[in-house]
Design the sequence.
């Protein structure tokens, strides 16, 4: 465990930020406190994991400004937020995987012009869930 102490510390900061810090203050107001019910997962259930992945990318980009300004604590906070978004993407993917086991598609996803095979599969999974 000591070989992973620094990683555990980082992940503990991510959980604290989501459960008690910025994530809870901004996104769980009047909502169940469960991470799985926060808007970032609810929105992703509607539009797919691209939302979370885009948010993680945005937060990663914002790190540079704080880093250049030598505001290292805010830089770290943005990284913690990116990790939280990526963790949410993992949860969403697990939900899709579980739903696929429960209700296997009866027909393959139809490929439409301008829609990637991944997008078509995700839309088909949404249909199967709902």
Sequence:
């Amino acid at each position: 465990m000591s070989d992973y102490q620094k990683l555990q510390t980082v992940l503990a900061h991510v959980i604290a930020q989501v459960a008690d810090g910025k994530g809870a203050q901004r996104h769980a107001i009047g909502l169940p406190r469960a991470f799985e019910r926060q808007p970032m997962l609810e929105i992703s259930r509607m539009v797919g994991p691209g939302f979370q992945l885009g948010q993680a990318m945005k937060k990663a980009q914002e790190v540079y400004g704080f880093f250049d300004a030598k505001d290292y604590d805010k830089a770290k906070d943005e990284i913690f937020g990116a990790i939280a978004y990526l963790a949410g993407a993992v949860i969403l993917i697990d939900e899709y995987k579980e739903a696929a086991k429960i209700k296997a598609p009866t027909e393959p996803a139809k490929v439409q012009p301008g829609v990637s095979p991944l997008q078509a599969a995700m839309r088909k999974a949404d249909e199967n869930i709902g």
